[in-house]
Amino acid sequence: MTTLTRALTLVLLTGCLVSWSPNWHLAQALTVPPTTGYVNDFADLLEPSAEETLETQLNATAEKSGAEVRVVTLQSLEGEPPAEVARQLFQEWQIGQKDQPIGVMLLVGVDDQALEIITSQGDQPALAENFKQTVIQQKIAPSFNSTDYRAGIQAGINSILLYLDNPDSILISNIDGTSAPAFETVFSRFVLVLGLYTVLAASVVGVASAVAYFGRSLPIWPASVVAAGLGFALGWLSQVGLLAALVFGLLQLGLEYVIRSRFSS
Amino acid sequence: MNSNAPIHHQPQVWFGLLGLVSLLAGGFSFWSLATYTHLDHLKTSSEQAWEELQTQYEPRFDLIPVYADSLKTVYASEREIFDYVAETRQNYALAGGAEARVQAVNLLETALDRTQTMVEMYPALSASASVQAVTTELATTQQDLEQPIANYNTSVERYNHQLTVSWITPIAELFGFEPATRMESL
Known about the structure:
The structure holds 2 protein chains of 2 kinds.
Chain A: H1 3-20, H2 24-29, E1 39-41, H3 48-65, E2 68-74, H4 82-92, E3 103-109, E4 114-119, H5 129-145, H6 149-165, H7 183-214, H8 221-237, H9 241-262
Parallel strand pairs in A: 1-2, 2-3
Antiparallel strand pairs in A: 3-4
Chain B: H1 11-74, H2 83-94, H3 98-121, H4 123-127, H5 129-164, H6 169-174
């Protein structure tokens, strides 16, 4: 093998290895620009005053909560998936990396008609997927369809900040803020309470029967009086003491008669 | 003696078993129902405290659109930024139930706090007479709410604490009792 052949082989092999590298294609297709702050309007969609307002709002957010929310507009993503572009930007700009506060990016690719909300790969929990889709479809896309980019981006950022303020809020699961009535919870609770009262009633009858059987050699009234007293004590908790005393006393009396007539002492 | 003869249990065995099982089942159901009643009472108390707080919160709630409008008037070119606080107000208006409303108020107050930070950053906004007037009114409502918020948080803490008691926790989970949300201080 001549020196020239060896050199050509080396160049070919190196080329193959580099092109297999996952970042190579992106690095070749998309040059990552240096960040200009919280608002990176490379596609020039926003007026300078709108940029300044957003920058102030996002700066205040970072100071208050530590969350780094970035707006990035690019003329073209060069055919790359938005998530990959965002990952590269997060990495290059050192945002939302491990042990850092959460990074959220609203990414707009004008030529690709790409619109994505992406969270960094840090330790913090990401935004819920259904929330992102709702924000894009309901808050951003309508304004973008009428080429009002400022209004769309501002509406999207407002919703994201709302989420970051309280991700556990039950209101966030529905962007419109309505919360469905917990009918199932109320119903199952009602069934459970009813079931427990039934068990309690059956248990009272069971205990009363056992008492009546084992005490059938004694006079009939003491057990009934004790049962009435117990009924009053239990019923007092539910403010139906007298009624419960009457029911418990009569129940015990009835059971005493039935059991004494069937089982002689 | 025939060992294959059927065994006839004495009635006292059956009544003994009946009494024992009934005692255990009755004890469990009574304990469950008593715990449920106790938690339900605490939950209702915290909801009543919220109702009182909510009544006193209304004037502050009514000031939010006035505040947002006064900011938009001064800073008309970027009026959408103030929709943030208006959206959280809408959340509050739409929220159903005490728990959802407390969360909505917490969000609304965070949004208000953030908007006030923005106002401080823009001299034109903070210098506006209309903005200053509403800001003063907001501060007044804040003072009026201190005691109702303290009362509500006390009842919530009492309820939430009970949910963490070891012998109450299983029943609370069985009945689906969830911790209540505290109201953040304004």
